[in-house]
Amino acid sequence: MLKTLDLSQVMVLDIETVPQYASFQEVPPHFQELWEQKTHYQRNGEQSAEDFYDRAGIMAEFGKIICISLGIFYIEENTHKLRIKSFSGHDEHLILSEFAALLYKQTPNLMFCAHNGKEFDFPYLCRRLLINQIEIPAQLELSGRRPWEVNHIDTMELWKFGDYKHFTSLNLLAAILDIPTPKDDINGSQVKQVYYEEKNLPRIVTYCQKDVITTAQVLLKFKGMDIIPEENITIVT
């Protein structure tokens, strides 16, 4: 499949998420109780619900999306290039509306590519679209589909080669495939702090865009192609 994959029909994607509230104390009482119930077994009696709240951003019921970055492959002068675009801000409804509007202009057969996308990015997007009462675009409509009917690409799944217990981070995969990555990035565990304490959304957007670039390069490696040099990568506003 990958050998014949048309890159022009692929959109590389990454999202960044944070808890809906800066601290557990700000969470409405009813949702504090629901959070305690939701995380009871994960905490295993070792952490309080309040201490565990730093992880709320990875759960669509208690988190929100603050950035969606997209990568589009295109050919210019017989050379593969990559264009990056991001939707970001504090208004999740606006971010998702702009993202959905972009997808409405694309072919329904558009394939997404993300690292761990089938476990995280794709379902998270669908859940937050539903919560925000935004129609889920055809490309993300996964309800009722069997796993083999979902044609999105997950680079972590590709690396598993059928080993469903195997987890490999994007940074590790890039390193072993000899893909250069920036050394000055924040990591996922720091996004909440950078957003709520440093109030530095542009830094998070840059981090998200770099993950899209890395995922795109990993996909090219799986296809047996050369990676795209930095001068052929464009970030558009």
From TrEMBL:
UniProt-listed InterPro entries: 3'-5'_exonuclease_PolB-like, RNaseH-like_sf, RNaseH_sf
Domain Predicted 3'-5' exonuclease PolB-like: 62-225
GO molecular function: nucleic acid binding
Pfam families: DNA_pol_B_exo2
Protein name: Predicted 3'-5' exonuclease PolB-like domain-containing protein
